[in-house]
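Bit of a strange request maybe. I'm writing a small parser for structure token strings and I need a real example to test against, not something I typed by hand. Could someone generate the tokens for this chain?
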Amino acid sequence: MLAELKKVRFPVETGLLIAFCLFLPLVEAPKNLAWLGYVAVWLLNRSRAGELGAQFRASWDGWDSLFALWIVTGYLAAAFSGLRGGELSGAHELARYALLGWMVKRGGYSAKEIHWVLGALVLSLVAGLAFGYWRLWSGAGKSGTLQLYSVGHVNHTAIYIAIMFGVCASWLFTCWRAWTTGRRVLALAVCLLALVSLIVTASRGAIGVGLVLLLVLGAAWWPRWRAAFIASLAVVALVAASLVTFETAVIRKQEVYVATQNVLSGRDGIWRMALVAWERYPWFGVGMNNYKQISHERVRTWRAEAGKDYDAARYMEYVHAHNLFVNALAERGIVGFAALAAVLLAWFAVLIRRRPRAQDGELAWLVWGGAASAWFVTVMVGMVNTTLHHEHGLLAALLLGLWLSTLSIPRPQRAS
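Reply from user aminoacidic:
Good idea to test on real output. This should exercise your parser:
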């Protein structure tokens, strides 16, 4: 690989991006250094190549505007936030993953480089899960749950695994017929590891969305390979039956919540609290990373100022809103929410409009599957958890950027 890396346009830049992918779910400091190095070298390379001036402006498109708007609204929310504390660091975090997606989108990477990047993501997932299981079984991890070390909390680990499960399934569906038996067995093993690990997290939302994602991807692959959908149906049916038959942790958790009439696990109270904060600061919110400052005392005061009653039993304090969209409203207000909605809607529209055709090559299907998985998990799990931040935010933006970078490649024409 080192010999091939010397042949690429910007080998140091590509190497740093691959290193970032390897470190992403594993270790914090090297991941941050790789990201910083990638940004610095990307800018240096584009400056030397004369691609940051007139040529950059000439190639500007709608997605460039969306990435820029996404970043700017984070800093607007910080500048005009209703509360003070971590709003600037929150804006930096948004800029970190949005800038990554934007730079990758404009990176002009070859098919070989994109495969290396995706391969690094898969390799780091396997390594991260191996370490996570060791910590779980040895007792080294204090939480007693399966966690990717640099991702953290089991729910966020589940989000990351669900996205990568989609990437692995997309790769399997794309290359199955071209692979040797050995590569098929290896790919199946990685997909199985991701699926089993997702179940081990016992995250209800991520498991449900992960299984539906497999069906969605299988259906999308129908024009190219119909067996993908049939296999997906069989796997989902088998997993669903197994979850119920063996009374797995996720089923027991659901039964407890149903028995206590708390299916949402207190999320309704969390959402009410977030919406009160949004009503108090409608345009720019309380500021990113300031959600944890929304307390019962503040909600009581805000409700009183609005001439409304307050029943503490209907509200629940938490460090985030357990919902991507409610969290965005509370922390970034209408302005930040509108930018997020614009990105997600544009992402979905282009996924539908530019879905690969049966005759399109391997790369088109692979990167589309990664971007579709990132969108689906981000939005669907985002209904019950706060997605699109930190490691799974970086992963989602990276997969979006990789796919967008290929859209300028001419598609083969249909035979007349």
